[in-house]
Amino acid sequence: MPIIRCQACGIPYPEENAPYLCSNCGGIFDFDGPFDFSLEKVDPSLPGMWRYRHTFGLPADAPMVTLGEGNTPLVWAEVNGKQAALKLEMLNPTGSYKDRGTAVLMSQLIQRGVTGAVEDSSGNAGASFAAYAARAGIKGRVFVPESASGPKKMQIEQYGAELVRIPGPRLEAARAVLTEMNQGAVYASHAYLPFGLAGIATAAYEIWQQLGSVPGSVIAPVGHGGLLLGVMRGFAALQKAGLIETTPYYVGVQAQACAPAVSLYLKQFGKNVPVQEGNTLAEGARVQQPVRAAAILSEMGRSGGEMVAIPEEAILPAYQQSARQGFHIEPTSALAWAAMQFVKKVLPEPVVIILTGSGLKYNPYS
User: Fold this and answer.
1) Residue 161 three-state SS
2) Position 276 pLDDT exceeds 90
3) 366 — pLDDT class (breaks 50, 70, 90)
4) Beta bridge mates, 252
5) Does the reported pTM lie above 0.85?
């Protein structure tokens, strides 16, 4: 299993407690290589994504915190006149892909003796955190921007976590949670703590097994970047195991109103695009300072890919078009649906689009 290290100074992640940044230099933690995947170690007797537990890096006696996440369907549909396979991540227990990462994160926190934690979120991560905290017996407190979707805020409260509404943009919720950390709270960040990447990688294993081959392309929305990076790491693990020869072409998608990862991508080609945190229907990807953007671009440099910004006026039509085919997704997921119109090249096939969150989390009438 690869080791979690600080990406700046290289020190390993401590065996006790759960710091979100390196105490030595303030750097971000990440795995230092692909996960170890073995078909022989896949255990079909375990529920959902836990059949891949051997890739999680959990101690043998770590609890399995699960609500049945993973094993989501892969369904073919026509998107912008082309056939694509849709990975229905909105069918996870709390209605989003976040559950894959949260399940592994919570197992790690319990193993490390954590009994209470805080999180900041635009909604989906907070809902997932609240549900799995309830399942794990961890007291949770979630900071959300006041503009977050009403159904998501209600979901967080129903799971029993304390909901803290923060005025202003998404960035203000991230700043507010720092006060809690300064008072000694454990920051169970889906963005900064790398544990969840191993859970998200299971989506790649499932796609490979469901297709019976490696996809030509994978399209996914990007907020902090954990989804796309986790999927990248999953396919890298399959390649490391000798099960696939090549990895997919990756397309990361953001709303034009808030597209810092796209800006970073374009900067490689000498284009300077200013970054703002403007209003967008795709609230789940409204992140001004994405934690995993640099790691995504590094992976793209090895395997190929691009970042695409979707104009605001294209998001609602994509949301409506997907619903007309029976896929009730939230607007953030619609970014990936809309991307089929905006990619600059003919995508290698088969194309997989990851639909990240349920439309039940979005109330267009509020």
Assistant:
1) coil
2) no
3) low
4) 220, 307
5) yes
